[in-house]
Amino acid sequence: MGNTSFNYFMPTQLVFGDDATLGLDGLIKGKSLLIMSDPFLYNNGTAQEVAEATKIDSVVFFHEIEPNPSCQTVDKAVALARENKVDVVIGLGGGSTMDASKMVSCLIDNEGSIFDYYSTGNKTLLPRKAQLICIPTTAGTGSEVTNIGVYTNKETHTKMPFASEYFWPDIALIDPKLTYTLPPHITASTGMDAFCHAIEAYWSVNSNPISDALSISVIKKILDNIEMAVNEPGNVEARNNMSFASVTAGISFSQTKTTGIHAVSFPLTVDFGASHGIACSITLPAFIRFAYAGRKSKMDYLFTVLGFSSIEDFAGRVEDIMTRIDLPTRLSAINVKESDLEHIVEVSMKAPLIHFTPGTMNQEVLHKLLKSIL
Ligand code: NAD
User: Which CATH number among 3.90.550.10, 1.10.150.20, 2.60.120.650, 1.20.1090.10 corresponds to the domain 180-371?
Assistant: First the structure.
C-alpha cells in the first residue's frame, strides 16, 4: 500500500465503449468546433466521421499534428482556432494530438503564443473557456485523463512536459474501435507505454492506494492482451482490453506522475528519434529490476499477486513479451553508444520526474543502469 494520506482529483468525465463516438452530439456544449488530428486520421476519414457525429455546422479541421508535437505547430492551430472563434476543441488522435489540443483550447482565450507560457515563457494560463474533448486513437498515453501536455521546442531541441489545472479534458471519450487501424508496431510501442504508466505509478514515491489498485489491475491486463492486439489487429476483446488498460493506467499516473523511465525517454526521443513508446519501454526491464531495490516489499506483493515467482521471473516475462512483439530492450538498437550516456544522464537528471523513482537515483546510478542495457 502507498501513502495512506493522499489527495485524489480526477475531474474528467469518462465515456467508454464501442461506437461511443456516435453519441458526441449529446455531449457538445458549443457552436463552433475545431477538430484537431494528424494526417493519418484526416486522410482516412476518421476526423470527418467524428465531425458528423457532433451534428455541428461550423467545423474547422487542423490535421498537421506531428508525433511529439512542436510549439510551432501548436501556435499554428491556435491561430486557426482564434480566427474561427472556436468554443469546442476535439483532440482526436494519439498523445501528440491530445496534448496539442489541451494547449490550443487554453490559448484561444489567453493572449500570445505557447512560448509565453511554456519553456522559456513564465506567464500563467488563465482559465480555459472552450470545451475540451479528447478522443484517443492509440491505446497508450492516457493523455485523455491527465492534466499534462508534452511539447517539443525545436529551437532549444528539448521535449518537456507541462501541467496545468486547465488541461484536464472536460470529457475523455474512448471508443476502442478507433484503435483497430493501428499497425502492429504502434500497437506494441503505445501498449507498452501504458504498461510503463501503470508500473511507474505503482512504484512512484507519490503512489497512493487508489493508484496502486488501478495499476495492479491493468498491469496484468496488458501482459495478457498486448500480444493478441499486436498479432490480431481485429481482435475486439484484445483491443477493448488495451483501450481500457490505457485509460486506467492514465488515471493512475495522473495522480502520481511518472518516474525515471519517462525522464530518460525525453532525450531518447529528441536525440535518437525513438517513438515515445519505444523511448519508454526500452528501459522498462532495467527499471523494474532497479525499482525492486527501492520498493522491495511492494514489488514482492506485485509479482506475487500477478502470479510470478520472483522479480526476475516478472522482469524476464516483460522482456520476453517485448521481444516477441518486436520492441527493443537494448539501447544500441536505437543507436545509443557508450559515449552518449553522459549526455542522456545529464538531460534525464534535469527532469523533475526522475526524483519520483524509488531508491537512490543520481548521475552515477543512472549511468550504471543505462550502461547495463547498452
Ligand atoms: P502519436 O500521437 O505521436 O501517434 C503516433 C503515430 O500513430 C502517428 O503517426 C499517428 O498518425 C498514428 N496513429 C494514431 N492513431 C492511429 C490509428 N488509430 N491508426 C493508425 N495510426 C494511428 O503517438 P502516441 O504514442 O499516442 O503519443 C505520443 C505523445 O504523447 C508523445 O509526445 C508523448 O510525450 C505524449 N504523452 C503524453 C502524455 C500525457 O499525459 N499528456 C502521456 C504519455 C505520453
Answer: 1.20.1090.10
